[in-house]
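Input sequence (480 aa), recorded before submission:
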Amino acid sequence: MSEFYGIDLGTTYSCIARINSDDIVEVIQVKGSLFTPSAVAFDDNNQLIVGQAAKKNITNDAKNTVVLIKREMSNLDYKRTINGKTYDPVDISSFILKELVDEANKKLANEEGLPPIYDVVITVPAYFGTIECERTKEAGERAGLNVLKLISEPTAAALSYGRKQKSNKTLLVYDLGGGTFDVSILKFQNYIADTIACDGDHHLGGADWDKAIVDFAMDKINASFNSLSPEEQGMLMQAAEEAKITLSNSESTTLTFSCKGLQNIKITRSEFESITARLLNDTMSIVDRALDRANKTISEIDEVILVGGSCYMPMVKEAVDKKFGKPSKLVDPNLAVAKGAALYASQNDKGYVDGGITFGNDKGSRGYGMYVWSDKFNKFVIQTLINRNDDKVIRNEQYFSTLNDGQTRINFRFYEYESDENYLDVNEDWELKGKENYIDWGHPVPKGTPVKIISSRDSNGIVKVFAECQGATGEFVIVC
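Predicted structure, token format:
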């Protein structure tokens, strides 16, 4: 059997899985743990530290430690300068991937004599757009990996859950991770899983529940989080995360942290659930949007599965069960995504596991459009080329025309957004900047000369636009 691996590159924790020689899906232990914290630090000698040691480093050297980097994948301006060297989110993500793979390689080489890991599938939030997908793929390549595909985290979890399911059904995946939240609705039919809608927020996750505990503690002592030193902030954030985990099994706990001396703040589960109710409500609003996009009612959802470590909070399952009027299922919340990615990767090797589910159609999560003049609105607008909930793999052909007499070229401006509309007012915040995209045919043509536009998106979520006018052509990857 060929060796293929699935990687869950998480906001707070990452892990790697494979199909072993017994056709069993397993997560590979790295340094004795199934999870590697998605944390990066540098010591005084500028030596790279990744994982658990880096996470602990935030309490004594926060300025040289990076966490929650996945939330910055869409931020082209985000940089961290450490010991005189500047790193972007792709750099940091590549360090996490390389550590994960290097440590897994040591284990597999020592125990089974296997060759180094190379072919991988990496998961991304369903709500990641083109920029985030392209940068995640680049991070894998910088780590020395051949990224076969990127697939959405809820889809991976559904494949892991559904591979032994015999019946046809409609499944909703509620995926609340450490830093992101996604909802995907999939239809399982004849051992094929098709995504029919997705929605989410890549700035909503367990870290926001942690932040609510931090705010609670600071209110109790009438102090500001920003008044703390970076190390004190790191200590409090770690204490908040530990409190959140403890409150999943206990009715109360105490946060111990430093602020003008040692502080001990008690918090009960009911207080925790009260201060985070708005966050839970936000996830339910996203569930409603996904149902609307799928044109499904609650009664048409056969099963709801919960994935992501934050789903261990009792308030999550209680709210989901109440909304759908039936018990949801906690499905290996911390490991299902990596396992599903390994299953998807191994579909290249036919007959890898009995009763396997094949992933069929996926859906996009963003709309993509182009700056055009509209006679209908008598102004420049963004006209959609690919709609938000179109099939992920898609090819559209549209025709436009030149705007002015004597025109010799066209400059293109492309946009990525979360609207379902076909025409939108121009919003500069949505523009995909960084490249000059144009075609130039070099001779004047009359107003109204036809312009052919072909827009496409591949299975990795990468969007391209091909343009043709008067024999001049150009193909543009509309991502910076």
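Checked by second reader. The domain at 206-277 is CATH 3.90.640.10 (Actin; Chain A, domain 4).
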